[in-house]
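pasting for ref
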Amino acid sequence: MAFLSDTLARVKPSPTIAMSGRALELRAAGQDIISLSAGEPDFDTPAHIREAAKAAIDAGHTRYTAVDGIPALKQAICDKFARENGLDYKPSQVSVGTGGKQILYNALMATLNPGDEVIVPAPYWVSYPDMVLLAGGTPVFVSCTAEQGFVMSPEALEAAITPRTKWLILNSPSNPSGAGYDRAAMQALTDVLVKHPHVWVLADDIYEHLVFDGFEFVTPAQVEPRLKDRTLTMNGVSKAYAMTGWRIGYGAGPELLIKAMAKLQSQSTSNPSSIGQYAALAALNGPQDYIAESRAAFQRRRDLVVAGLNTCPGIDCPTPVGAFYVYPSIKDLLGKTSAGGKVIENDEAFANALLEETGVAVVFGAAFGLSPHFRISYATSDAELTDAIARIKGFCEGCR
């Protein structure tokens, strides 16, 4: 009898976490490493949020809370959805979890049965397919190439839907590509979904506020109200308010689903951090100036990185509309040999050689389901980004 679960054999460790870990190990060994692999803002959590957390500790809010969130935070989430997205929810339709990742995981675990299919546009965040597999479902990938702007067409969505389809996971703006669905593109997808009432929508809106050049963010249930009763709209405070370590995510949807998610959470982690919840309450209800400031900084960094990468021989970098990632192609580098003697057979070989020869850590495109690409997170300083681009350019110039 095997000791480890067969379920565990269906999934693999997160490649982004693995690359970040490798970069940390090399740095600890004394190497000069620039890590562009982690997806978290490098800014401090805004002061008023930090102060609210301290006040919560002093007030004794350090005990267990309701399993899926304190009432005040649930109401603040309802207010946020009404204010920013035109969506009307009650607190009983809201779930708060330990990060947005738990909201997604709970929803899939609470709903998937063996044979159920989940449509996942590729490139995708690395955790989506493995969460589906852990829940016993089958991920169905829809390739969305650079030529398509990394977005899924309504025709491709229609073709992917079968009688077994239970969910579509839609992440806009996207990790890893930074691509987003404008209102017209989103409407085209929702028009397809309206025709298939057995398909639910899992909208991952975690990068909602990180959009550039006047791009208008929309979420599926906002564009098509007829989908609201079969949509889970997920968001969180990690990216918008530089609160990755606070581990607070939330989702809103039909009470049937929210109750099922709470039941699952009650037997796994129970409530998210009480202090984190009070910090999130201050984030949602307090001043929102930080969002515009961070957005401006990220847009400046995006422009720096896109311009720099497009001077690198063999790299083609599209300009994303949101998030804090770029997803360049290395198609013209395939088959070449680096100055250090490494053959660039694929994007994983490229990322490994780049780290070994220049100390720049990126994540290879195969981890996100679309090659030959790599992902850079530009959530770091302008100085580090400038240095990293110079190293990448030197690496590319050395390839023969």
